[in-house]
Structure formats: structure tokens, C-alpha cells
Amino acid sequence: MQVLFDKDAHGKTVESLVESFETDVIRGLSSAEAKARLTQIGGNELREQPRPGFLALLWDQFNNYLVIVLIVAAIVSLALGEYVDSLAIMIIVVLNAVIGVIQESKAEQALEALQKMSAPRAEVIRDGEIAIVPGREVVPGDIVILEAGNYVPADLRLVESINLKIEEASLTGESVPVEKNAAVVLEGEAALGDRRNLAFMGTLITYGRGKGVVTATGMNTQIGLIAEMIQSFEAEETPLQKKLEHLGKVLGTACLAICALVFIYGLFRDTNLASALQGDFMGYLQAEKKDIVNLFMTAVSLAIAAVPEGLPAIVTICLALGMQRMIKHNALIRKLPAVETLGCATVVCSDKTGTLTQNEMTVVRGYAGEHHFRVSGEGYAPHGEFSTEDGAFTAAEVPDVALLLKAALSCNDAWLERTRRREGGFFAENGE
Q: Which residues are catalytic?
């Protein structure tokens, strides 16, 4: 029976897994079978909940008690003929909504762009030949070739491991690369960090090489399970949102109470309310109609005056300014109120390796012979230069430095690939 997902692969032998996934360690899957499985289970990618559209973002801006109070005040002002007041309130409400929608949509677009950048390619065996395919086209049963510097495209049961070490900080928080062993068969429920015969999607191969059979893809992977838990989390209202909601309810209740008290007091003072209380209600309305309308308009005007029309707009503008300042420091804010929540934080606890740092060790200083020198560049990017206080130099100019680099190159399995690119009718060598 063909299996397309196995969460207990760490406790099974390679032979049993290869049989259950109906694959071959040497020849891999056929292109036709891989295509059929891709159609059956979908792409190897993390599925997200649909991003909120424009109308949803706009509704979120209006779905606020204080904003609703302002809209009601604008409608009442319009009905009473206070066109200037009504227009001013509506302009403030619309401006508040537009600013909120623009800022949150920018954040959503930035997050989507980051996600597109994280789609790796995978080196697999198809039809007995090595092929490079997009990461989303990897399917269960594929035989994946693992090399240093590559990201693992899916959850794998290793079938071959040669000095293989994988950095799993994104899953376990452990900064030290884990040494893998394909020959190990674990018993029982082993912790994620102890599954030495598995490689997990999104982890980085730091040393050695290997080969593995895909046991899970997409949302069935370990990182997919984490993504599902994150997406199922329901965000709570921030302290600022709670306070504004409470303020809106207090103002709304206070406005209604003011209207009622002023109106009732005016009826007792300026009209013959006793006749209505004695049963002649229609006669009372006919006789005091003008005074009753004037009293009602006065009460409503007082209530509208008590509503702080500019408060929502001021809060939104302040949060938007805070978001812009944080973006300049490479911090993305998905929701405007989160700016205020972060401002209230005194201590932030976070995993460092793989979250705040990239776990990429970089040489910054060197010593060769009697030469002390600095090395520029960051991470694994092949860009930088050697320099001393006298200025920059190349390794070819200093034999001791060249010898040091040869020794370093001989002690690892990294390389620079030399390609040829056509420029203006000529071919140029590129060592990047």
C-alpha cells in the first residue's frame, strides 16, 4: 500500500520506508509518478490563511465602538441640518480608516514578498538521474540529495549520511549543528532534537553530505505543524484597543444620559408636562410641539459636542508614525495597535540563534606569518576584501595569506562555482 505521509519514520528501517513509499533509492521516482503525487497531495509549501482583502481591512477600521459613535453623531448632525459638523466628522472618520488600511496593507505586502524569497530548490533523483526542481514540486517518496550550504526541502528519513551535520535552530533553538546518522533506528517516541536519522524541512546543512527519502511535505512537516499552530492562534485586543473600546462605551452611555436628562428637565421647565401626565398626551404634543423639538435638538447638540471627533484620527496617525519609524529599523508591524503593545513591553524573551541571528560564522580577523589583517564581508556571501592599516590587498600579493587560504579551503567542502556569462558579444568569467 502506497504511503504519502509517515510521522514515525525515525523508528523504521530504510528498507521498510522505501517499500511503503514505493520508491527506489538508486533510481528515485519516475517523472510521471512524481507528477501524479504532486497532483494528488498538492505542492510542498506552507499554506497560510487567506490574507485579508481591501474590504476586510476597511471594515476592521470601522469596527470600533468609538468610530460607530462618531458615525451616528455625523448622521444625527446631518438630520438636524448641521452640515458643516457632519462633513467634518465624516472626513475625520474616513481619514482614520484610509491611514489604517494603507499602513496594514503595506505590511501584508512586505510579508508576502519575504515569503516568496524563501522558496528553495531541491536536488532529487528522478528516472535514475539527478534533477533540480523547485522546492514546491518535491513529493513524498522522492530521493533528495543533501549537500553543505543547502536547505532541506522537506522532512526526510536519511538513507545515507557522510559526516552530515544539520543546523536545526529554527525548530529546536539549538545553535550547535546536529550530527546525523542514517543507520540509526530509534525506538518509541523520541524528542525532535534526538531524531538523528531524520532531516527536517527548512533546516540548514552545515557540513558533509547525504541522501534521504521524503516522508512528509507541506503542512505535514514539523515546521508545517508549527505554522498551523501559529495560524490558529486568535489575537487578543491590545491594552490601547481595550481602553478605546471602554472609552467609546462610556462616552456613548454618557451622551445618551445627557440627552435624556437635558430633554426631561427641559420638558418640566418649559412645557406643561402635567397635562400629558393627566392623560391628555395628544393635546400636549399639539400645544408644545415647537418647544419639544427645540429641546430635543439642544439635547442632541450637547451629546454631539461631547464626542471627541479627532481622537480616533490622532491615535491612528500616532501609531502610523510609530510603524514608519520601526520600518526604518527593519521591523515589520502587521497590525497598527501592535506598535503600542510593543511600547508597553519592558522585557522581550526570544530565542537568539536562527531568530535574531543567522547562525553564520564569519571570519573578521586573520594572522598569517607576521601579517595581521582584517576581513570584510558578512555571512556566506562571497564578497569582501583583505585589508591592513596600509590599505586593501589581495591574497596573491602575500604568500603567507595565500597559504592560509589554501589550508582553510582544504579543510572544508565549500567551493566557488565559476560560470560564464555573455556581455556585449564576449564571454566573461564570474567567480561568484
A: 351
